[in-house]
Amino acid sequence: MYAITGVTGQVGGAAARALLAAGHEVRAVLRDETKAAQWRERGAEIAIASFEDADALAAAFRGTAGVFVMLAPNFAPEPGYPNAHRAVAVLKKALVDARPERVAALSSVGGHRESGLGLITQVHILEQALAELPALHIPTAIMRPAWFMENSLWDVAPARDTGVMPGFLQPLERAYPMVATADIGRVIADTLTQTWQGRRVIEIEGPQRYTQHEIAALLGSVLERDVKAQAVPRAEWEARFQSQGTAWPTPRIEMLDGFNSGWIDFEGGANEHVIGETAYRTVLAELVRRGAR
Prior knowledge:
The protein is α/β, with parallel strands linked by helices. The chain is 41% helix and 17% strand. The mean pLDDT is 97.
């Protein structure tokens, strides 16, 4: 039995589906019953637990061969990341109490950095807390995927309507590692079924790296219109993000600065490095279909 958090999202859902497809038993950990039916139909067991309830989470994790944990995405955190600290404390207590056979946790490219991470700071907090698990004889794998290809969802509407894809990763001609969430989910599923001791770090990227110009061209081919990438001047970022409803845009800006300067990158060294198989165009086609529904 494998307990999976975040099943209503892209990564957790992909991991749970991959495990079920391989014939494994899955316990889908949900905050409430509203989305339980679809997972019951897939054959998953359901556990209701929130990240405010360590006892309920421990019950969901107990007796499993492996647990996948992740923080709920928060693109507008408060200064100091109090929500991340609270959730991580609850998760850690639940894992220590439950003692699953192994744990896989979602971090990010750059998660090893101590500063200059912006939004990625939240998963760095998670990494730091879970670093103590191997000493408690709970093998732990830290998953550090590249930039999600699915982030291009925000580019579909402007590209379709104006033929312009706003570019925040700059310079536009630099190729960045990208990965599909389906590939991340498959790697998580594979990892949970393996046996190891201590701590692993697994870096994940797609089959090739892409420039913003290449992504715009691929998006144009899916939309069947010309699409060009256009750099958004950094001086405009704060006002733009605030107009989109982000009260404190500093973490998002700091994260983008980290990518653009090369500070946020894979650590390398002795870490494992996995190459996914999903092409960017495949993801873009699905995003366009999703937007047309």
